[in-house]
Amino acid sequence: MLAFLCLILQLSNAIAYASGTRGKHIIILAGQSNMSGRGGVQNNTWDGVVPLQSQPNPTIFRLTADLSWIEARDPLHKDIDVNATCGLGPGMSFANRLLQRAPGLGPLGLVPCAVGGPRGTKSARESDTVNELDARMYGRRLINLFNNLRADLGSPLLPIVQVAITSGQGPYVETVRKAQLGIKLQKTRCVDSKGLPLLPDNLHLSTRAQVRLGRMLANAFLKVL
Ligand SMILES: *[C@@H]1O[C@H](CO)[C@@H](O)[C@H](O)[C@H]1NC(C)=O
Ligand SMILES: *[C@@H]1O[C@H](CO)[C@@H](O)[C@H](O)[C@H]1NC(C)=O
Ligand SMILES: *[C@@H]1O[C@H](CO)[C@@H](O)[C@H](O)[C@H]1NC(C)=O
């Protein structure tokens, strides 16, 4: 159980997509703090900056914690990742880019389900980039996670796009990156976040980085559809 939790907590970002009812397309936003969104957050305050590429759009909705659909706007995870100060994530620029390139896919329903990991030494101990065994197991565990997710959703070819990490605590960042980039499963893609600007904590993507990442995710996603 602990191992499974570690994987969920360390899986930086994953986007999965499934056909929904009534012609809507449902996108699952999974991961931890980066997917939840920390862009523009400093000293536990979000600066409220929403770039053009992340603006709301009347054909992009999101599921709330009490299971109603509302027009989507950042922070997408504010009622999900409730113990953190949420800011800008990649979800809105992803969705806007997707509709820009393939308008027929709308309306889109985003399902935010990322929760940031605990802070401090506990989180370092639980990180897959700190422990050699966890790092080595990462690839196999990721495949299991994707297979389980697809089985649970009854969608064996559910398209999945994940993000390869750039930074992390501990010495095994490269081992994890290699596992992420090397995954060979049908209908999966990995985009590399290397080089995207991080916040001063060196752990979270800035607003500008999140906008770029969202566009990268959308481009990869269209290839895997
Ligand atoms: C955040 O807090 C630190 C220390 O308390 C302070 O030096 C810094 O100016 C603050 N930054 C912002 C953006 O408020
Ligand atoms: C928030 O914190 C409470 C108290 O520690 C905990 O029980 C709960 O699971 C946390 N919720 C999330 C979404 O992290
Ligand atoms: C946030 O994303 C960056 C870029 O992918 C990654 O290097 C970093 O490890 C992530 N932070 C966490 C806490 O997962």
Description:
Helix content is 35%, strand content 18%. It is of the alpha/beta class and 225 residues long. The chain has one domain (7-224): Rossmann fold (3-Layer(aba) Sandwich), CATH 3.40.50.1110. Strands 6-5-7-2-1-8-9 form a seven-stranded mixed sheet. A hairpin with a 5-residue loop joins strand 1 (13-19) and strand 2 (25-31). Helix 3 crosses helix 7 (207-224). It is globular. Bound molecules: 2-acetamido-2-deoxy-beta-D-glucopyranose (NAG) (3 copies). One 2-acetamido-2-deoxy-beta-D-glucopyranose is lined by residues 42-43.
In short:
By secondary structure, the chain is α/β, with parallel strands linked by helices. It has a single domain, classed as Rossmann fold (3-Layer(aba) Sandwich).
Which descriptors would you attach to this protein?
Rossmann fold; 225 residues; seven-stranded mixed beta sheet; 35% helix; alpha/beta; two-stranded antiparallel ribbon; disordered N terminus
